[in-house]
Amino acid sequence: MKLQSRLLSLAVLAALPALAQADEGARALDPILVTATRTPIALQDSIAPAQVIDRTQIESSQATSLQDLLRGRAGINLTNAGGLGKQSSLFLRGTNSGHTVVLVDGVRINSADLGLAMIQDLPLAQIERVEIVRGPQSSLYGADAIGGVIQIFTRRNQGDFAPHLQLGGGSNGLREASGGIGGSSERGWFGADIAYQHSDGIDACRGSATLFTGCFADEPDRDGYRNLSKSLRGGYNFNEQWTVEGTALRADGQNHYDGYYNYSETRQQVLSGKVRYTPAERLVLTANVGRSDNESDNVGADGVHGSAQTHRDSASLQGDFGVAEGQLLSAGVDWSEDNLDGSSAGYRVDSRRNTGVFVQYQGRFGRHQLQASARNDDNQQFGNHATGSIGWAMELDHGLRINASYGTAFKAPTFSDLYDPWSGVPTLDPEKSKSANLGISQQGQSWRWGLDVYETRIDDLITYDAATFRMQQVEKARIRGAELTGGVVLAGFDIAAQLSYTDPRNRTNGSSQFDNWLPRRAQQTARLDVDRRFGAFRAGLTVQGAGKRYDDAANTVKVGGYGTLDLRAEYALTPSWSLLARATNVFDRRYETVAWFNQPGREYQLSVRYQPK
User: Average model confidence (pLDDT) for the chain?
Assistant: First the structure.
């Protein structure tokens, strides 16, 4: 496994020097990024390290899940407990899985109970674009954004109204079907989609009730998964001043597990509405309302039953004022209320409100660029918390650019951290962090590369102590890391490479775990994507993997590193119809990302897509 990880890293590094030999073709339009500043900017102008994955990239990857799409990308560590649809946790820049704010169309979907975003239940068929912003963002988004923010935008239709359809199947009883219709007119747009995914699954866990390991059960069976999702979206421009839009997404899942609970039914629903008013050329006012629901009913052996229902209502008002050419001042207020209505846990406290007020300045002065923001959050349980960030960038000759940033962030303990009857500790304090980032990048006509190094220090980090079966606070944690990314179009090949190094450590003096790795985070992750079109035929591959990690805070349970190869092909039968084929984990590697929980071996998939051009 160690050799595989090294070979994967070498493959990624070998691809990056090709940037200097890139074809000098026409440069593609730089993607627009919203999440890094809460205002639209060009991706290359973002001071915070960021990445955009659009619908074209999603379709060409032939990924079957969101975690499949994100795995191995810069700064991202992903764990999965047993295959498609099973619990997946995302660690951004070495921080906890609850330290990344996940938004769907501007609405936060992190569960108020556990603090996690159930990314395994978000269907790729409903996603138009994913924006990943790495580094602290609490000064814009409030609590939880210690590691960064990931925003998911549901599909948006442009052009003439037309249907689209995709049908497919594959190994382990995979069946997929998705379709919809949408389009736009001169003033408005509308779309509707439905998607279904069903897999017989694999044996999720190789645990043992006798040895008290893994899922603490001996259940060598297939653990299947189903997901039915629906979405609606629409918008209308009344005139040059007023625009309204709304989206709705609902995903219902059925999941089989091994362990205490064997089966669950889940529901994830997101509703959002937006009104934008432009009273003057340099002034834009935007009002947003939203609601996110996370519900699950869990059933175990001998009639064991549990339920969890969390709901978050939110609203925000933001004003953006152009104070001068190249200078923008933004200010706003965010309000949210979390509720755990209907949960069987019976927490002592099951609701709380938060109000945040923020201000941000963006300015450009010749080759220099400046971004500064400050925010105060008034949390009903934990009082006021102030956060801030400042960033600077400078453009040099030959497309070179350097940047530096510093930011603070915090996270309030979740209801589960505080009040879970088995593991909760009501005296936990909010987590606080300080982060710094230095970066250098270069972009040419058809190539780009970037290097970012960072350090994050977290006080009162909340973790689970397997020895006491209770939550605990690590007095000091330090995370250092580096991310190397690059892309090039070379001799018709589209090559993208990403290599990350993360060193997440417990730095509490006097602790028996001093200098231990924080659990479930690999030090190295890498991903290499290569695609090439030959007329009506397109072929590609993805090599990705990770180094070793430890599954526990004591660093006694090691999970080995791994590397996998995926192959894909696409053939355009007509301008509207395409045939797609994919093989994943081609060499049938056996590996885990969570101790005792299996990952799929070699799998095949075949699909047909109808999408008018």
Answer: 93
